[in-house]
Q: What sequence folds into this?
């Protein structure tokens, strides 16, 4: 059973990242990864794969998913929750002619990591923008974030070894 309530996944073919421009809160109008709430009795990886299917229609057979770590989410210095971080590596390249694609939650569009992480790109959710490079390159991530209103005021990479895992390597 999950300790925290949220998941966030980056879907990539290694060259591009599939992002969702959300229609509603949180962060409407900004590019974000794919994710959502962990439902009762659901494991974090089951929640991430369910959210990927719901928000993109991409089936689990089309990618390999890796649980990378955890992001601690604070607002005004108060812990709100943790977010399980995943990378979904597609088996086939993203076909740009399929996008943009309107989905129930928002608009799907692939972008290069370089464009998504540009300092002058204000169209990406701030903590996700900072996570993209780490999630593309790292095997383990542990991040502390703090927001004032919806403005990111702290993004600190912590030692991933300090994230508790079970005997199979899953976050607990």
A:
């Amino acid at each position: 059973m999950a300790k925290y309530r949220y998941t966030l996944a980056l879907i990539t073919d290694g060259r591009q990242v599939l992002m969702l421009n959300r229609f509603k809160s949180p962060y409407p109008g900004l590019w974000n990864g794919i994710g959502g709430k962990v439902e009762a009795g659901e494991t974090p990886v089951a929640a991430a794969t369910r959210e990927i299917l719901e928000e993109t229609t991409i089936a689990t057979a089309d990618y390999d998913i890796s649980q990378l770590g955890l992001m601690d989410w604070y607002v005004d210095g108060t812990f709100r929750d943790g977010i399980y971080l995943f990378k979904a590596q597609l088996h086939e390249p993203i076909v740009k002619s399929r996008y943009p694609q309107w989905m129930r939650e928002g608009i799907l569009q692939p972008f290069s990591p370089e464009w998504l992480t540009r300092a002058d790109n204000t169209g990406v959710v701030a903590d996700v923008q900072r996570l993209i490079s780490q999630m593309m390159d790292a095997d383990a991530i542990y991040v502390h974030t703090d927001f004032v209103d919806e403005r990111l005021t702290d993004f600190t990479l912590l030692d991933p070894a300090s994230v508790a895992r079970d005997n199979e390597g899953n976050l607990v």
